[in-house]
């Protein structure tokens, strides 16, 4: 990758929990490419991870914020702008959580209060972040906003339950706000649909290992790693992708467009 793709650019990276997370890898890649940023996560998530260590490595600060609370987002943006010295060129929304999945509730037995929490944390927070950014006029022209999605937004994966609905909503918000922000300030809004990835959140889903291996066998390039996703995010933050907006971009080694593979067929040939 060319050097200094993000030189002079500043922004916010949400959701870095530990060294396995996509947001964590993205922070390191953004720093490597000359970008500056503030890290943020919900206070409860910060107690579970090691985000302060990442901040030290990246010469930045952590500003706690609950992305479902508009007042927290306003405070985050104001403090980040003061630290970074200007408006933002990029935002990464790497936030997702489902109490129903954590507690083993099936799609036909959802706790609806928990489901609403899933939608608020995993999708509506994306809208709130952009709504506050618009209201505060804190995005520079040609800025790039990315949300992390998953193919279950468009196809049925029974184990993904209400998170599939949340990701579908996330992608819809990206299109809706992508149009709005593009007209207002040439700001780009996209989602990236990543391979199953061995993050703390991903491995907490029942049957993850089996599906990870299935996707690996189906994808012609294999599963995309968290680090390669971080590279893709950096590219989307850069000026090289200025005319890409309102898209859900598959970053999955070709899984999303592969019907079947020889490896999968081999497992069933004698049945």
Structure at a glance:
This protein has 271 residues and is α/β, with parallel strands linked by helices.
By CATH, the superfamily comes out as: NAD(P)-binding Rossmann-like Domain
What's the overall geometry? globular
Give the terminus-to-terminus CA distance: 46 Å
Helix and strand content put the structural class at alpha/beta
| Physical arrangement of strands within the biggest beta sheet | 2-1-3-4-5-6
CATH architecture: 3-Layer(aba) Sandwich
What portion of the residues fall into strands of 2 or more residues? 5-15%
Reading off the top of the CATH hierarchy, the class is best stated as Alpha Beta
In round numbers, the mean pLDDT is 93
Q: Briefly note the CATH topology name.
A: Rossmann fold
GO molecular function, one term: enoyl-[acyl-carrier-protein] reductase (NADH) activity
Catalytic activity: a 2,3-saturated acyl-[ACP] + NAD(+) = a (2E)-enoyl-[ACP] + NADH + H(+)
Enzyme class: oxidoreductase
Binding site for NAD(+): 15, 21-22, 95, 167
Annotation keywords:
single chain; 271 residues; alpha/beta; Rossmann fold; 6-stranded parallel β-sheet; 10 helices; oxidoreductase; Enoyl-[acyl-carrier-protein] reductase [NADH]; EC 1.3.1.9; lipid metabolism; lipid biosynthesis
């Amino acid at each position: 990758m060319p050097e200094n793709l993000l030189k002079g650019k500043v922004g916010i990276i949400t959701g870095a929990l530990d060294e396995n997370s996509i947001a964590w890898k993205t922070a390191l890649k953004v720093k490597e490419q000359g970008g500056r940023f503030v890290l943020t996560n919900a206070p409860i998530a910060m107690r579970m991870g090691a985000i302060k260590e990442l901040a030290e490595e990246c010469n930045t600060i952590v500003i706690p914020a609950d992305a479902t609370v508009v007042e927290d987002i306003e405070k985050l943006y104001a403090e980040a702008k003061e630290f970074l010295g200007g408006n933002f060129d990029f935002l990464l929304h790497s936030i997702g959580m489902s109490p129903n999945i954590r507690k083993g509730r099936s799609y036909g037995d959802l706790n609806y209060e928990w489901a609403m929490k899933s939608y608020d944390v995993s999708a509506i927070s994306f809208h709130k972040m952009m709504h506050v950014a618009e209201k505060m006029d804190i995005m520079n022209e040609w800025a790039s906003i990315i949300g992390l999605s998953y193919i279950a937004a468009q196809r049925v994966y029974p184990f993904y339950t209400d998170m599939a609905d949340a990701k579908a909503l996330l992608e819809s918000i990206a299109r809706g706000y992508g149009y709005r922000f593009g007209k207002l300030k040439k700001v780009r809004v996209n989602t990236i649909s990543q391979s199953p990835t061995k993050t703390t959140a991903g491995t907490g889903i029942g049957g993850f290992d089996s599906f990870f291996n299935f996707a690996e066998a189906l994808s012609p390039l294999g599963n995309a790693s968290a680090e390669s996703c971080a590279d893709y995010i950096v590219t989307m933050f850069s000026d090289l992708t200025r005319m890409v907006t309102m898209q859900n971009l598959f970053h999955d080694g070709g899984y999303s467009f592969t019907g079947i593979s020889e490896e999968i067929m081999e497992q069933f040939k004698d049945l």
